[in-house]
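Supplementary notes for students who missed Thursday's class. We covered one full example, reproduced here. Read the sequence, then the structure, then the short commentary at the end.
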Amino acid sequence: MLPNFAYIRARSKQEALDNLRSEGAHVHAGGTDLLGCARDGVFKVEKLVSISRLEELEGITGTGDGGLRIGALTTISEIAESPLVQESYPGLAQAAGDVASPQLRNQGTLGGNLCQRPRCWYFRGDFHCAKKGGDLCYAVEGENRYHAIFGGDPCYIVHPSDTAPMLVALGAEVRISGAAGDRTMPLQDFFVLPDQDLSRETVLQPGEIVTEVLLPKAAGIRSSYRKIRERGAWDFALVSVALAVRMNGSAVADARIVLGGVAPVPWRSEAGEKALNGNEPSASVAADVAAATVAGARPLEQNAYKVHLAKGALVESLLAL
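Structure (token representation):
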């Protein structure tokens, strides 16, 4: 059951920021994850601050340097269907099109997709787990088939977003607004590992909101997104592979490999990138790159299959180049 809360529909970004300063206040955009968290008691909700009327946070537009600006209120469907995104960043269009169901893509926003809370059933359930201030991560000895194989200690959640791994692979930046003003950072640095801070998944401070994502110029970059899930639709990734490469003839000059569904953050593999750069994506090279990418995996009792899925999905993605 939803708790009682105040509801504010902000008429400006500043009004939203002013209202978000109070304890128990949360930003409301699409609400596809927020309302579920409120109902399940994932966090305390005393005030919801709607930013749905802030047109300045909507839309997809080109930037002066040849890149792209995507407002935080842009829906996932708009990203998947945008000709600008499809032409220059096809991997992002694929990732957006793989999010949840059509109904949720129509409602959910990019900002919300990046900031959604973990889907771990211990975190969402009635367990006083480590992430909620307890002493144990119950996934270590419990049901852990969907949990992390990288970066998990002391909490084995996985980041649920499809757009985040692809945006990190594309070198995107995120812009944040708060009482202290605006700041911009690489999206890769936006996410927080459990060993850095168990209480949160992003660098957002209380009262801050994501306002937009900035993509660099895509000339010469090939991108793709491969998602493996249990069901054909409306499901989170068991493993996903976001790939963005710049070619020099038939060889890869520069690559970014980011895995989803395997770590508490979008998991970039510099070892895999190093093995790929300078080489043609042949079957043998792809196998070497896949082996390097999963070399540091530390699976739990029930999720070692993710290592094999990650290798297979990455090989498929590389050979598709």
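Commentary. The longest helix spans residues 305-319. The mean pLDDT is 96. If anything here is unclear, bring it to office hours.
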